[in-house]
């Protein structure tokens, strides 16, 4: 069996770089720095909670949980922007949890 860890790590880095270069400036243009840090923190918390509450086959349920979590905390959710933040956070979390094991 081929070890695909380097490929996954490269993809995580690529997606993180694209996220940093394109998406963060777009979000920043619509929010101030304090709001952005706060949203990122809530997304990080919600993603970690969703990972604990649902199994790996329940991707849509996890995403719905995060979106509802943000809405419950008073954020108007722009699905496209928040979806990208969620995906980036999930990639980071998976790299932290599983990157060293594979």
Structural class estimated from helices and strands: mainly alpha
> What is the rounded distance between the termini?
12 Å
Average pLDDT for all residues? 79
Morphology call: globular
Uncertain spans: none
Give the percentage of residues in beta strands.
under 5%
The Rg value, from CA coordinates, equals: 14 Å
Number of strands: 0
For the largest beta-sheet, the strand count, sense and barrel status come to: none
Count of alpha/pi helices: 4
Q: Share of helix among residues?
A: over 70%
Number of domains: 1
- N-to-C order of helices and strands: HHHH
Account of the 3D structure:
The chain has one domain. The longest helix is centred in the N-terminal third of the chain and has 26 residues, at 5-30. The chain is mainly α and 102 residues long. Helices cover 79% and strands 0% of the residues.
Topology:
Blueprint lengths: L4 H26 L2 H21 L5 H14 L6 H20 L4
Label this structure with key terms:
4 helices; 102 residues; mainly alpha; globular; 0% strand
What is shown here, in short?
This protein has 102 residues and is mainly α. The chain has four helices and no strands.
